[in-house]
Sequence to fold (150 residues):
Amino acid sequence: MLADQWCETSWRAQPGSFVSLMTLYESNFVRLGWLVSDLRAVTARRVSRVAADCDLHLTPQELSREAGQYRFVPDKKSELTRPGALMPGAREHIAELQEVEQAMQRESFYRYVIRYWRKLHVLLVFVTLGLTLWHLVYAAQLLLPTLIHK
Fold:
């Protein structure tokens, strides 16, 4: 059995180069051989299903003695046509992001409430100081004349 890690890559292969593209093609060909051992025997549509991933549809398009063309693009009824199907876990990730966004909105609201709560308490401190001073002055005005005339 041929493994795709044995597909030799030249030391000249750089990302986006022709050599790396050919290595990718060879690796994909090896992986296709793992899925379908005899491609010429496939004459009808096949579907490979795995519980943890999306379905892979193999549809032979043109079959001749020399070469066969196969299509791996999903049909309109396929699960791959729904948004986010090619990104496993995208829905869960989006749901988590929405939860985080809601938590941040709640935190922002709580900060807003706390900010005005503090301002209210500062105002109450000044009102309390003012009333205390007023009471002291009023009491002094009442008591001082009686203490001075004795």
About this structure: Residues 1-35 form one domain.
